[in-house]
Amino acid sequence: MKKLYILLFGALLMLTACADDSGVEEAADNGESAEENEGEHINFSLLSLPSSLDPHAANDGYSLYVMTNIYETLVKLNQDLELEPGLAESYEQIEETTWEFVLRDGITFHDGSEFNAEVVKANLDRVRDAEVGAPLEFLFTEISEVEIIDDRTVHIHTAEPFAALPAHLAHPGGHMISKEVIDEDYAQMEEGGDPLTEVHRNPVGTGFFKFDEIVEGDQVTLVRNEEYWGEPANPAGVTFKTVPEDATRIAELSTGDADLIYPVNPGDVEQIDGTDGTYVEQNESANMTYMGFNTEVEPFDDPDVRRAIAMAIDKEAIINEMLEGIPAVATTPLNPTVNGYSENIEPIEHDIEAARELLEEAGHGDGFSAEIVVNDRTNADIATFIQGELSELGIDLEINQMESGAYQEYTANGSHDVFMGSWGTVTLDADYGLYPMFHSDNMGAPGNRTRYANEEVDAMLDEARTETDEEARLQLYEDAQQIIVDEAPLVPVYHSVLLAGLNEDLSGYYQYPSSFPYLKDLEK
To answer: Residues of the chain with pLDDT > 90: what percent?
Structure first.
């Protein structure tokens, strides 16, 4: 069930749902020229389309880049990276295990239905419903009950004290979906249909953009929500177009067919910056790029084999020779922007001779063959570099580059040996950077694609979730990270710098460290 949203994407692509009149018709109604309104539409070329438009179903970046414009959360991160009320007017912890949320009044969904306490309960109950099987359930497992106090007041009860609850509610998994569509999803489940289908087909939120249409295998278009409860978006709409090839995205940017492209390969920064009318916007991230092992298959079920490979990888060389020296070396799973990052972790140092000796002791002195799966050009380049380094140990890596959706399913199902991956700690809190990635409850699509299982680490991450003393909580995360680094289910390679290509006539762009682009203020 948890992988169903990927399989259903093809069905969504075959549908076209018009949620509003075209931007040109709106311009005529408002007395504006078609040319003026057309100039406000933003064309955004991405490497891949969303795997789902259901916030409870998808946790891949490309889905979240689109959904964060359709839906909103009770709590949000502002551009100073501070938590503040979103759809909630206020929130506070009134008891150790009870949080009170007072909701804003007068907010409606894109379908005209009301946002209220009943909606909040329906959303948080659905994402935790085992029958639905939402991959984002792990974010909210500490919630024991959602209690409606009145139409605008909700009490969220947790099984134990849970300091990270507001940060988790700010994650896109906490996006509020129209209850009308949730009810439709449950209705078709009762008739024998699959869960995570109707919201995916008909995404209805409260956001400053609303869903307009999807063109099979090509693009998703959103239009401005003219009834938005806050300040309306500047653009008349945004079209997210899938352009898998880096060179094609760059060409579209240079000709003006795209106003904005993401991601940009570090090797292309100089070209884009050197082209008249285009430049690369660089922003700090909360991301970590890594090489992950499937710890359930031989020989990667042996920590010594994994450590030997970690020793053989020269991260400095990768960054300087492959990535133009732009990212920072990663020694731990957490980016320095994340609360819980520690400089006290002892990393596995680069030492090819020690790697050779350790591999010999593990019984693989003659090496072995394995597949490494990648999903874009940057990771393919890094895999090629690592392939050369590991050949010195007799390890033959076969590189398999896959389309993003196929890659997500392949690695979620555990079909891989080795893979290049990345993780963005969206909440900027260590719980989200470690719990989904390394807790044994979260194998597959929720985040643990290395299929790593360690009872001591599980216990530490569970305890940290309910620890109310911040110093003690951070110590648990530090201790857990040291075990993870020592056992090497993955090799942290680098902490990204977010690289987006923009036309110089585009202003108002902002990208969160989570990598989510904020498109509301764009102007051109």
So the answer is: 82
- What's residue 65's pLDDT? 93
**What phi, psi does 441 have (nearest 5°)?**
-70, -15
**Domains of the chain, residue spans:** 41-185, 285-497
User: What's the pLDDT score for residue 40?
Assistant: 87
Letter string b/e over residues 195-227, b meaning 16 or more CB atoms within 10 A of that residue's CB: bbbbbbbbbbbbbbbbbbbbeeeebbbbbbbee
User: Tokens 């792990």 sit at which residue?
Assistant: 138
Would you say 120 and 174 are in contact if contact means Cβ atoms under 8 Å apart? no
Model confidence over 72-125: pLDDT tens digits? 999 999 888 889 999 999 999 999 999 999 999 999 999 999 999 999 999 999
The continuous run of DSSP H or E covering 181 comes out as helix 179-190
For 444-460, the pLDDT digits (tens) are 988 999 999 999 999 99
DSSP 332: S
pLDDT tens profile 285-329 = 999 999 999 999 999 999 999 999 999 999 999 999 999 999 999
Assess contact for 147 and 63: CB atoms under 8 A. Answer: no
pLDDT tens per residue, range 463-522:
999 898 999 999 999 999 999 999 999 999 999 899 999 999 999 999 998 889 999 999
Contacts 24+ apart (CB under 8 A), 317-323: 317/385, 318/382, 318/385, 318/386, 318/493, 318/494, 319/494, 321/385, 322/266, 322/267, 322/381, 322/382, 322/385, 323/266, 323/267, 323/378, 323/382, 323/494
In whole angstroms, what is the distance from residue 127 CA to residue 134 CA? 6
Rg of the chain over Cα atoms, rounded to whole angstroms, equals 23
Domain 285-497 CATH class label: alpha beta
| pTM assigned to the model | 0.78
CATH superfamily of 41-185: Dipeptide-binding Protein; Domain 1 (3.90.76.10)
Residue 35, Cβ density class (10 Å: 0-12 exposed, 13-18 middle, ≥19 buried): exposed
